[in-house]
Specification:
The complex is a heterodimer of chains A (about 300) and B (about 280).
Chain A lengths: L11 H23 L2 H11 L17 H8 L1 H34 L4 H13 L2 H12 L22 H28 L4 H9 L4 H29 L3 H6 L9 H11 L3 H26 L11
Chain B lengths: L1 H33 L18 H7 L2 H4 L3 H31 L5 H13 L3 H14 L5 H26 L3 H8 L4 H30 L2 H5 L9 H6 L11 H21 L1 H8 L7
Helix pairs in contact in B: 1-12, 2-12, 4-7, 4-9, 5-7, 7-9, 8-9, 9-13
Classes of the chains: A mainly alpha (about 300), B mainly alpha (about 280).
Chain lengths: ~300, ~280
């Protein structure tokens, strides 16, 4: 499918086709690079300077001082732990739930439309709105959750670090499991149904069929879904900002970056945080790509 | 059959659980938004009496006094502009990728994928600084530009998948039958491509509609602040009241239309969201 290289003998037609193709792609490529490649380069430049917009007179090149301050602060490591913890827990839950929903949607004898409806409602809701809804639901004074059986009436969900995490994780799982389910479903439909028939004939149980046929054949789809969801979960911002704004040590690295850059206007330190987050994402992506090999190019961007 | 009934019951329970869990936050917001202010903290899932005072206060005073009307207009205009521009640019690129042979095709697809994984927080500082320097801070284009960047990968992948399914030979067939190239394009290709472009447009619109990080970082006033960011700044009637009721009412206004829309076009959205997940 790719253009077979004919560097010297390219005909006039081939050359004009290439020109047209580049012309058509150029605007999109420029628009995509404008707010990614240039700003990340600029962020690196900012991160080696002392720039605090509240004290514009002081400034200048400080080398790696900003990185040293960030990496030397306890806050960065707490926030990194929070982010990794939230990512690992929510993506694991999403994988299990998403797989269950995908299996239901794939094998449902009836009610497939109903499940699809249920899956798309969270997708259509603004993350901030969903975060408010869950926050109000868990609020000790006005929420309904504490009125439910088995839950203490005066449970202060946002008064403690890990109960706050529980609510944050629930809201994230609620919002993003649909993606996981749909990506897994796309992998599920590619499996040849005859394999299951053959396994049934050979006496394999439903559990055996799931672990011996479904899982191995879905490995690429699962890895692609995990890659996108991991990187997406790693930048968690909206839900935490609305629910706790980082109180009770629930800050994520994105909230830390935002606080430095926008609230404190410390562009130097904030940019160092930004660059470090970018490096973390690169490492995660690299690890997945190593596992995935070339399959990753066949995945699709999410969000 | 014993087994059949049991399986039926299990499926029904599973499906019911998924639906209930999916709907709870929406129903809860509707319930909160309909409670009169005296009952807002009663903790009941179903309101004991219904009042529209939250909606009235949300829109009270018209565009100048309401904390919601201007952000709502901003949200709609910014999301629609992003969608229109993004779909045009993505269609050009997707047409080239799906139909033409050229070196760099793989690089563009891989680059788009990389941008889909890019952490937006890493661009916030530089954009904040750049936008203030060139006057884009707190303007519509100041938000539309980053939304374009981060929605294009989504649109390109969905459109490439759709365009690859179009039987392009029909275009030549129509020309053989005497249609001009423009007629062939307008009467044959456009109707075939429209559903895919429409689906991609929904995905882009929802992306722009949903954004919070750029909206809260790159705006400072109602001049361009969108609804998600405005909600974070809502205040109560007085400094002693929580804005729960107004937030709930505003949330319902921006949520219910989108949900109805999404449910109406659910088949298309599912195919758009999973486009390219199976075949590149």
């Amino acid at each position: 499918m790719e253009a077979h290289a004919q560097p010297t003998g390219a005909s006039e037609r081939t050359r004009s086709e290439r020109r047209l193709a580049w012309l058509l792609c150029a605007p999109a490529v420029v628009a995509m690079l404008a707010v990614t490649a240039y700003p990340i380069a600029y962020a690196i430049v900012l991160s080696v300077q002392s720039i605090d917009l509240r004290f514009p007179a002081e400034g200048g090149f400080v080398g790696l001082d900003n990185y040293a301050s960030v990496l030397g602060s306890e806050l960065w490591w707490t926030d990194l732990f929070n982010t990794v913890f939230l990512t690992v827990v929510s993506v694991s839950i999403e994988l299990v739930l998403g797989m269950a929903i995908a299996l239901v949607m794939h094998r449902a004898i009836f009610g497939r439309g109903a499940v699809r409806t249920g899956v798309l409602v969270p997708y259509g809701i603004i993350t901030v709105v969903a975060a408010f809804s869950w926050q109000f639901a868990f609020a000790p004074d006005s929420g309904f959750v504490n009125g439910l059986p088995l839950i203490s009436d005066d449970m202060d969900w946002f008064g403690d670090r890990f109960s706050s995490f529980a609510v944050i994780i629930m809201a994230e799982v609620w919002k993003t499991t649909p993606f996981m389910a749909l990506l897994l479903l796309a992998g599920l439909v590619t499996i040849d149904g005859q394999l299951y028939e053959a396994a049934k004939v050979d006496g394999a149980s439903a559990v055996q069929r799931f672990f011996r046929i479904t899982l191995p054949l879905m490995k690429p789809a699962i890895l692609v879904a995990l890659l996108f969801r991991t990187l997406d979960a790693f930048r968690v911002f909206d839900t935490i900002y609305i629910m706790t704004a980082g109180a009770q040590d629930t800050e994520s690295v994105s909230i830390l970056g935002f606080n430095q850059l926008i609230s404190r206007l410390n562009l130097g330190l904030g940019s160092a945080v930004s660059v470090l987050i970018f490096v973390c994402v690169l490492i995660v992506a690299f690890l997945y790509v190593r596992v995935l090999g070339t399959r990753v190019e066949e995945g699709r961007p999410v969000k | 059959m014993e087994r059949g009934t049991r399986e039926y019951t299990l499926w029904s329970i599973g499906i019911a659980l998924v639906l209930v869990f999916a709907m709870i936050p929406v129903l809860w917001l509707i319930s909160l938004s309909l409670k009169p202010s005296a009952a807002i903290a009663d903790g009941r899932f179903v309101p004991s009496e219904i009042s529209f005072e939250n909606y009235e206060s949300l829109f009270a005073g018209g565009i100048d006094a309401s904390p919601f009307i201007k952000p709502l207009i901003n949200s709609i205009l910014i999301a629609l502009s992003t969608t229109a521009i993004s779909i045009v640019l993505a269609s050009f690129a997707a047409y080239a990728i799906a139909r033409l042979e050229f070196p760099g095709k793989r690089a563009i697809l891989a680059g788009a994928l990389a941008i889909a994984m890019f952490p937006p927080i890493s661009t916030i500082g530089p954009l904040f600084d750049m936008w203030r320097a060139i006057g884009l801070y707190d303007t519509y284009p100041g938000l539309i530009i980053p939304y374009l960047t981060f929605s294009l990968p989504l649109a390109i992948y969905a459109l490439v998948a759709f365009f690859r399914e179009i039987p392009w030979e029909l275009e030549q067939a129509a020309q053989v039958d005497g249609a001009t190239p423009f007629q062939a394009f307008r009467k044959v290709i456009v109707p075939l491509a429209a559903p895919g472009m429409f689906t991609a447009a929904i995905l882009v619109f929802i992306f722009a509609w949903n954004d919070f990080l750029f909206a809260i970082s790159l705006t400072s006033s109602d001049a361009s602040r969108t609804v998600p960011a405005a909600l974070a700044f809502f205040t109560g009637e007085s400094s002693f009241t929580e804005p729960t009721g107004s937030i709930a009412a505003a949330a319902v206004v921006v949520t219910v239309p989108i949900i109805l829309f999404v449910l109406f076009f659910q088949r298309r959205i599912v195919s758009g969201l999973t486009a390219g997940a199976v075949k590149g």
